[in-house]
Structure formats: structure tokens, C-alpha cells
Amino acid sequence: MRRTLNILFDVRCLQDDNYRDRGVGRHSRHLIQSARKCLTSSADTRLVAITDAHMAPLDAEDAKLFDDAKFTAYPAGLTGPTWFIGLSPMTHDPLFVARLINDVNIFKACVVYDFIPLHEHKRYHPLPWRRVAYNLSLYWLSYHQLFLPISQSSEADLRKVLSVPKDRTAVTGVAIDPTFVRPGGPIARPFPAGYILAVGGGDPRKNVECALLAHARSRRLQNARIGLVVIGYRPELWSSQLRAVVGAAGGDPSLVLISGWVADDTLAVLYRDALCVIVPSQAEGFSLPAVEGMAAGSAVIASAIPAHQELISRDDLLFATEDDMAASWLLDRVVFDPDFRRGAIQSQNRVWRKFRGDAVADAFWSSVLKRAISDRDSPGPAILNHRPRIAFLTPLPPDKSGVADYSAASLSEIAKLADVHVFSETVAPRAINNVSSIQPLSALPCLSRDFDRVVSVVGNSSFHVKIFDYLTRYGGACIEHDNRLLGFYAQMLGKERATQQAERELGRALRPGELDEWLNNEAELKTLFLGELVQTCEPLCVHSRMTARLVQERYGAMPILLPFSIHRRVSVVRHAPEMRECARAALGIPRNEVAIVTFGLVDRTKAPDECIWALELLRSWNIPATLHFVGALGANARLVDLCRELKVEPYVKFFSDFVTEDILQMYLAAADCSIQLRTYSLGALSGALLDCIAWGVPTVANQDLADNMDAPGYVARVPDNPSPVLVAEAIANFVDREPDKIHLEAERRTYEDAHSMQVYARRLMAALNL
């Protein structure tokens, strides 16, 4: 049974308007199209496009060339031999694919076009940062194992610039389109007496002025009314710039026709019918106009640069790039000496055949296959079995974040199974047992192959902005703590981006004010804002069974379910009288008071109004209840007014700031019961409810939240749109029928065993295929 060969292509040149339909895009497309045909005898091939989600999507026809497309260069999930092909490695950010280039298990080959920007940096990279970026691209270019320059001159330059050994290069040329091979069909002649054709463009190195001057200086061409057609130049510049050049040289501007890019079939006939094709470029990696002109059957003269000298062996058909007089004399000879023109065509007729599509494709893929097999069979360094190395990008304590606390607890257990290195923005992070290192957050782990996996921890707060940016840019595994990221997008990334993301996920425009409606009432939320994570994460891990189902239904992706696990362990049994009494005394809670606690930052999604109304009902039923909001009040001062209005102000306690771990644990020990509610569903989770379950605190929770947490029997369920009456009745039942402490403790222990961090760590390692 043959193994499948994965070929990963960096196709950003096909997403970029500057390259998609030019020589780079066409050469890239030809190599991709020919891959299966050229490699059928060696392996079953699976072609994968590495695309950048921040660029225009692949054209539909280009997308059909691939079996799959990835939005990052994170190589998770690949089995079998893998090749990476850099189609245009010097044109886009090399860090985007750095992890693939760094992977010793992946064979890397790249197309090399030219090093013109290096030699002419003042023209192409006048700013220092542009030169630094180019040199960075050169650095990453050097890490490929095989270089496939498009010409011998590019190969020579490559060997000088990067000191690449000869056996690491293979010159392939560039395939010409069959349209240009001896084209048929008529075309309206642009000049009755005939014309000379120059194919250039707006880049100054195309040196179109030399062709204009050569044509203008020739009295024979001017008197014979032989025209000059220039293709690929912006026509609007003709009147202001090029007319002046022609006029100053004594030429007739009416004999010059400037055109933008034309269709291939039109260009092919223009080549065919031209008296001569002139290519005056100052520098090229490969000269497509020269080869296309030869294939169409025209005589080609060109500047004496290395790329032209390897295509045109006759010195009498070449001229110095700045010698327009020599070019003018050569034009006269080709146009007015039929025998000379005929001899030029005959000598060039053998050249273009080397650049037929099948010849170039065979040269490319046979070189790749030969080098890949050679490198595979070469003995490498012995690699001892090692524990998996995992990089985690996450906030840590003392950051005031439940996610930070959860990460610290989980990493301590995961680090028993792997070498764990944490990258965090947290200032002065606390040490974590078993973790190998804690380093400042950067893109380094995303780019380095020092780590077998990179895991980013994502939540709804500001602590995750850079982590989110790195993850969606470079890919990796993700532990997504929230069941929706509306708040993160709207508040951290801005409402404009939030709107754009919602419209992408819904496939429609949002109504005016619709985003604000969701922010005011998340029960009306129509999408999860998880689309970017779904397309870039491998794998995406979620903590809620409902979230996993919704992701599958709405995004067509199957996330990994990692059930929420207990991260605050109880050191002694909560119900021990001495522990409870000590905690209540420290908090100033009398023995006969029914202490109701709700944990976490105070937010309208947690139904604080309903909790206060429920307290008012309990007090009216002569139950001596007090309500403690153990979490920062934030911008919810109106709740104080509600307490005053309902005359329960003396029985409600608020905290103005983040609650310390010591106070939190004292409340868990002291509480008679708890309320944990969510006004939205969508797979909501609650670290606070998990704490209450772990500590054996009888709790009232809405149905959706309790089900998502697999809550045990001492969590009383109320409807998802909870009424104060039902909440108050559930608490009254706790007071009237004090739970069987032995049965409750048995339930608590069973839940704790099933939702321990040890179980969580093993499940995560399995999800990461480690």
C-alpha cells in the first residue's frame, strides 16, 4: 500500500493582485497543475494550499487545484512524508511559514526568481526597514534544502549571495503558455508599414525608454513609417512622459502605440507579426518576452544582461542596456535585412523549446523528487526518544483572571506528562510546579520547531489579545474557555471588526444596531464569533458539550471536548465544623444567618437583579438570608440603588475590587448555598459553579449551565430564564431540607474524580496526539 505524499504550497502569490496574473502567478500555477502528473509513479499525492486569511481568498479555479487548504502553516495533523514548496519565497512575510521551514521532518524546496532588489536596494528598498525585511527573507530562504532558480544567472547569483552548494540547486526555466507557440489567427495591424514590439511594464528596470529612443533615433524606421508598439505600460503616462522622450530624440510620437496588458492570444499574434521584438531590460531573472517572441516566430534582440545572454547566444543580437544608438542600429539591421532576420529566427528556434510546459514541469519535479529521496536516505543525527515539548501561550496569576488561575492549575498536571514551557504577558508570574520555564510572550514558540505542539489559551478578556493575534496568524492548538467571543471582538478588537466577523459567519449584513442589541442581551446572539479559531486551530478544544455541538453545526468543524475540570481542590472537608466556623467568623457571618454567595465579576449576564429580588422574597418569608456578591462590582452601581429600593441593603454585600484567593476560599467554606446563573445559553460554563461543586456548596443554577457542567444532584436547576420566585424557592428548600452530608460528600468525590486535573491533562495530551 503506497503512502500519501503531502505537498504543501505557499500560495500567497496567487492571493496577491501584484503576482496572481503575472509571471510569478503563472509559473506557480503551472507547477501546481503538473505535480500529480509528474509524481504519479512515486506516491499518491495530496496537494495542500497554505493561504493567508488576511489576504484575498484564492480564486475559485485556483482553489480547485488543491485537495485541501490551510489558513496557517501549523503542520499538525499531517501523516506520511511531507514536502513544502515555496512558490515565491521573497515576496511575502517569511515568518508566516517559518514553522514549516524549521521542521526537520519536512522537505523544503523553493523557486528562486532573482535578487534584483538586493543589488538595487536604493530603488526597491529605499527605507531601512524594507532592507531589514528583505534580509530577513534571505535568512529564511537559506533554510530550504533545494533551490530551483528560473535561470542560470539566478542560480549564479544565488550561489554568491547565500553560498549555496551546486548540488542544492536545479535550474528549471519558466514554462511558456502554448498560446505563444506559432499562433494562428488574424489581428488588425497597428501600423500599415509594420511595427517593432516591446513588452515591458511600469518598472524602470524594464528600460522601455531605451526602445523608444532607439526607434526615434533611426531615420530609416521613421521615414519608412515603421511603428513601435509598447505592451504593459500605463497608457496614461504616455502623453506626459514618453512623448517627451520620443520628441527630444527626433522621433514621431504618432508612430508609437502604448498599451496596457493585453490578452495572451492578442499578444501572441502581436509577437508573430512583429518585424522584431526588442527586450531592453536592465535586469531580469528570466525573460519571458524574449522566449515568447521566439516561440511565436519573431526575431528577438535584447539587452546584454546575463538572463538574455543565456537565451541568445549570438552577440550580434545583443546591445548594452544604456546604448540606445547600438539598439537603434540593430533594429535597422533586423528590420531592413531579411536574411539577417531570417538567420536570427532560425538560431532562436531551438531555444524556446526547452521551455515548453512539460519540459519545465519535468525538470522541476524530477529535481525535487531526486533531492527529497537523497535527503531522506542520508543518515541523520540520532534522535533519542524525548518527552513531548509543549509551548503554552496564556495569562498566569497574579493576573486577575479566572483563565489565569485555571491555566496555572492545569499546567502543573500537564507538566507531569510533558516538558511545558509557558509564554505569558503576565508581569512577575508566579512559579508553577513542574513547569520547565516561564518566558515573555512572543511569536517565538509559533515559529520554532523546538516545540512539538503550541497551545494558545483564549478567553474574552484583554489578557488574550496578543495570544489571539499569534494564534490566528501562525496557527496551533487552542483551548477556548468561552462559548462565544462577542465581548472579545467588540471590546478588544473593536466594533468594526466584530461586525465584519459576524457578517462573515452569518453570510449577511447586520441590521443597524444589531451588534449593540447582542451586547445588551446576549440571549439574542445569533453567532458565536468562533469562526477565525475554527479555521486556524488544530485542534480547537472547548469545555462545553453544547459548544462542541454548536461549533459542529454552525461551522462544520469537529472540536475536541475537554470537560471543565476542578482547579481549586479542597484541602479538608468543607463541612468540618471547625473550618466552617473559622471562615464565618473571619468574614463576620453570624451562626444563624443563611449566607447566600454568588461568585465572579458582577455582570448583567449573571442575573444579579434576580438574585437581589430572590433575597427580598426570602427575607419576606422570615428566612434570615444575606447575599454576598464575591467579585468586583464594576460599573453596576445601580444594584446598590435596587437594594435600597427593596429595603435589603443591610443584607447585601458587594466588593469594589477583585477578590483575593484567600477571601474566595473563605466564602466557599462559609457559604450555606450559592446562586450561579447565566441569562444566555449557547453552552455557557462557569468556573464559579465548578468551585461550588468542588467544595460541596448546595447551589442554584439555570438548567443550561448546570447541564453543561454535568452538575451533581446538590445543584438545584431552575429554568434558563430564571424568575426570582423559583430561585428563592430552591434556596428555601436547601434551608428546610438540609442536604444529607454523607450523600453529598459521596457525590462530590465522584464528581471530583471524574473532573480532576489529572484526567484533564491526559485528555489534552490525547487531543494533541501526544
Short structural summary:
The protein has four domains: 165 residues, Rossmann fold (3-Layer(aba) Sandwich), CATH 3.40.50; 177 residues, Rossmann fold; 131 residues, Glycogen Phosphorylase B (Rossmann fold); 178 residues, Glycogen Phosphorylase B (Rossmann fold), CATH 3.40.50.
CATH class membership of the largest domain: Alpha Beta
Estimate what percentage of residues fall within beta strands: 15-25%
What is the CATH H-level superfamily of the largest domain? Glycogen Phosphorylase B
User: Strand order across the biggest sheet?
Assistant: 15-14-13-16-17-18-19
Counting structural domains, the number is 4
Distance between the termini: 26 Å
Task: Please describe the biggest sheet, giving its number of strands, its sense, and whether it closes into a barrel.
Answer: 7 strands, parallel
Molecular shape: elongated
Give the low-confidence spans.
none
| Mean pLDDT rating | 91
Helix content: 40-55%
Provide the descriptors you would attach to this structure in a database record.
770 residues; alpha/beta; Rossmann fold; 4 domains; seven-stranded parallel sheet; six-stranded parallel sheet; 25 strands; 42% helix
Q: How does this structure look, described?
A:
The protein has 770 residues and is of the alpha/beta class. It has four domains: 4-168, Rossmann fold (3-Layer(aba) Sandwich); 178-354, Rossmann fold; 389-485 and 528-561, Glycogen Phosphorylase B (Rossmann fold); 577-754, Rossmann fold (3-Layer(aba) Sandwich). The chain contains 34 helices and 25 strands. Strands 15-14-13-16-17-18-19 form a seven-stranded parallel β-sheet, with helices on both faces. Helix 27 links the parallel strand 20 (594-599) and strand 21 (625-632). Helix 18 (402-414) crosses helix 34 (757-767). The two termini are 26 Å apart. 45% of the residues are buried.
